Amino acid sequence: MRIGFIGTGSMGSMLVRAFVQSTSSSEIEIIACNRTPEKLAQITARHPQVEAVCTPEEIVRRSDIVFLCVKPGDARPVIQQVLPYVREDQYFVSINSAVSLEEMEAVLPCRVVKIIPSITQVALSGVTLVMHGSRLTLEERHDIESLLERISKPTVVEEADLRVCSDLSSCGPAFLALLLREFAMAAVRQGGIPSNLAETLVKDMTLGVGKLLTQEGFEFEDIIHRVSVPGGITAEGIKVLQPSIHGVFDQLLVTTRSKAHHHGAPKKEKVEAKDLED
């Protein structure tokens, strides 16, 4: 199987790295292109098994699965550019929400999929959101999800739910890291401990909580109740936290939804090939 990447920016290069780490070259060949040769050269220098390709057209001609990893504003022009080379037996996978499944199926003859990856795939962990096009059989859906299982936990969602789901799985690592950093820095300010010690304690605590939630069967409430003894120190701390954070994440989700809307939500009407032209 040969996987081709059109674009090796932040998310594209992360996916390339994840697949290289999780898969032997005898199982999967990886080819990639980037309009900035220097960026592509950095990837091939770090991962010699990745073959540099000059153009998106060559990626499509030579790949079984094509990952479109360009900026949202470039998605439609690139689709139009490679359209003459797309085969019916291919998978065309877009990693952003700029173009809907319906739009892609209106112009591309192949099977189409949308995914939203996360920075957590660097650690071969976290969630990849998956939305299958209508042409995929159950077996073909399983094949795509099995590929993504090498680097993450693929989770199928409805395209209409993409915004809020990606806030949790893809934007969430940044939101959580911000909160954890503030927690550590408060300990430095209030307790006078070194910042590296505070950060280490918070990082290792977070790892432990993650394992409780994902490996030991704990729910959020289980951890809260087990640690927060009535009348104890943790319970007093929670009394401070609850009014401070109540509604904060609602406001966050409203803001991200509004921002996404202004950037252009996926269109629901059918689009012809000419509508994808730049």
UniProtKB/TrEMBL annotation:
Pfam families: F420_oxidored, P5CR_dimer. Pathway: Amino-acid biosynthesis; L-proline biosynthesis; L-proline from L-glutamate 5-semialdehyde: step 1/1. It comes from the Bacteria. Residues 159-260 form the Pyrroline-5-carboxylate reductase dimerisation domain. Residues 259-278 are annotated as: Disordered. The keyword Zinc does not apply. It is found in: Cytoplasm. Its main location: cytoplasm. Belongs to the pyrroline-5-carboxylate reductase family. Catalyzes the reduction of 1-pyrroline-5-carboxylate (PCA) to L-proline. This is Pyrroline-5-carboxylate reductase. It comes from Tumebacillus lacus.
